[in-house]
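User: Hey, my collaborator sent me this sequence without any context and asked if I could get a structure. I don't really work with proteins. Can you help?
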Amino acid sequence: MDDTPPYPPIEPTSFDLIVIGTGLPQSVIAAAASSAGKSVLHLDNNSFYGGHFSSLNLEEFSSFLTSQSSISSSQPNPPPSAAAAAAAADAVDHVALDLRTRPMYSDVEITSHCSDLLEHSRKYNLDVSGPRVLFCADAVVNLMLKSGASEYLEFKGIDASFVCDADGQFSTVPDSRAAIFKDRTLSLTEKNQLMRFFKLVQGHLAASDEAENDANGRISEEDLESPFVEFLNKMRLPPKIKSYRSHRPFLSYIVLYAIAMADYDQDEIEVCKDKLNTKNGIDRLALYHSSVGRFTNAPGALIYPIYGQGELPQAFCRRAAVKGCLYVLRMPVIALLMEKESGHCKGVRLASGQDIFCQKLLVDPSFVLSVPVAPSQLDCLPESPQVINQVDAKQKVVRGVCIMKNSLKPDVTNFVFVYPPRSLYPEQVMVIRAIQIGSNLAVCPSGMFVLYLSTLCNDATQGKELLQAAIKSLFTLPVSGIPENSSSVDSENMEEVKPTLLWSALYTQELATGSYESINSTSMPDGNLNYNVLLDATVKLFHQMYPQEELFPETTSPENFEDDDALSP
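Assistant: No problem. I've predicted the 3D structure and written it out in structure-token form, which is a compact way to encode the shape of the chain:
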């Protein structure tokens, strides 16, 4: 008996652009191409939108990671009659090359300490690419406003930002003038140091905006090209943590890792793969401070979408559909159609056996072309037919998701925090970024909390050991023999009791960059807290594909883009 699902035929059979996968980069390009008047077919073999950028319920999340870490090389076979017709068509002017997927996740460890969680699986919306937040003034927010995708999203502000240490103690990030004055942990000298530093940065940015040739108020070019950590030292901010058990982080660490978002230990030249210079550091500070108070419903710098980060690709997909993009989910693509003479891709073959043709093709980063076996296929292939995009073999990102009943800080629901280098143990050279989200953002049942963590690493063992050290500093594991839901605590000081870890997932994700060739490919989620680097690559790819087209032509007056209520829930 034929188990092939009854795929309906797609009409028309020719498009300007075919997009495979509904991740955020693919969805942005699909929406932009549709807005530019292109006919677009958007396919996904999943039953949900978002792919590697999706938000899934508890069962779907576990199933997705497990399946994506052990992808079978087999593909659905087309019906016999359709396969015969397609094979006959191959002899005309093109040849079909099998399209397969490679695993982009590995070392998946899912642990449950609570048997009741699966009963409420559908009440969770867990981000596959977490932790992620958006700055109120960053490029993604501006793009959502410009494209109209913001009409399909609701956001809430992140309550606070902290720096964490090996004991699980949180120190507030004084990221604004008001926060500096309110912070009781800062001495008067430290407050004055921070205020002078931020005033200098604001003066530099104002002078740069007013006149490029006006040197008054601007930081010198020599300082701008110097390492940011050296510039902070020059500004008399304390340069480094003396011990990973320090009672609290110095100001330079707060600026470097909690505001400027540096990933590597900036004090150790030998291990720092990405030395942050002063110019880029000040640009990041400018983004942070311009985000504070931009929207009335988000008094801080950061916002998070209600129902999870998976709402972002869905919003762009909805915008694309309004502009005429055709969507088909649960539709595997089994082969690419390559022209025999030029070797250019001219379409795809679906699991149903139907061939669909296109002028341009954009694929998910997990796809790989099979090695050809027939001599007739050899002439039409690029030099490296197996790889559509490049996977970074030297660097990965390890992600973690935790579920608990109590907030890590009793008085705060939604907040981000960072473990700077050497804050957990002396050999730590990478930053850990984390975000806790509560039920008021519709990502978990009432009274529950979700924690996301991530770190860049050279190998999975290194990254997992770092995340496990962070989890150990934050949580209490259930004791064998004691009910999971027990609230009894053997402690005299209830304020020092750590939340009990109910469920966790640790997994390693490959980092793959997009490419612009006959077959275009997007990037995997990166290790950043926001989407700016990813969006820059996506915009660049769109302009390479369509150099004459504007990315989302203006349809609304510019003053409406700054409407404070545009992103209010």
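In plain terms: Residues 424 and 470 are 7 Å apart (CA to CA). You can pass these tokens on to your collaborator as they are.
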